[in-house]
Amino acid sequence: MKEYDVLVVGGGFSGTAAAIRAARGGATVLLVEQANCLGGAATNSLVNPFMEWHTKIDGVDFALCRGIKV
């Protein structure tokens, strides 16, 4: 039986990010998702957040979402 350092249950935004970060940190990771794709409700049900992707802090534009660095 294969063993893993980290088990992530749920492949939504947070689960996918957690699995990627753990793997990049050197852990062996198993990501378990019940649906046929990653992305959670945003992907499977087309429920996307209704918010801005940037804001201003002290008059300076600040990105709230920058994606995953390769």
- Assembly of the depicted chains: single chain
Q: Kindly state the mean pLDDT as a whole number?
A: 90
Instruction: Please give the largest β-sheet.
Output: 2 strands, parallel
Span from first to last CA? 31 Å
Number of domains: 1
Question: Proportion of β residues?
Answer: 15-25%
Principal-axis shape equals: flat
What portion of residues is helical?
10-25%
Number of strands: 4
Strand order of the largest sheet: 1-2
What is the tally of helical segments? 2
State the secondary-structure class.
Answer: alpha+beta
Any low-confidence stretches, pLDDT <50, length ≥5? Answer: none
H/E series: EHEHEE
How large, in whole angstroms, is the Cα Rg? Answer: 15 Å
What is shown here, in short?
The protein has helices at 13-24, 40-44; strands at residues 6-9, 29-32, 54-57, 60-63. With 70 residues, it is an alpha+beta fold.
General description of the model:
With 70 residues, the chain is an alpha+beta fold. The protein has one domain (6-63). It contains two helices and four strands. The protein has a two-stranded parallel sheet with strand order 1-2. Strands 3-4 form a two-stranded antiparallel sheet. Strand 3 (54-57) and strand 4 form a beta hairpin. The termini are far apart. The relative contact order is 0.18.
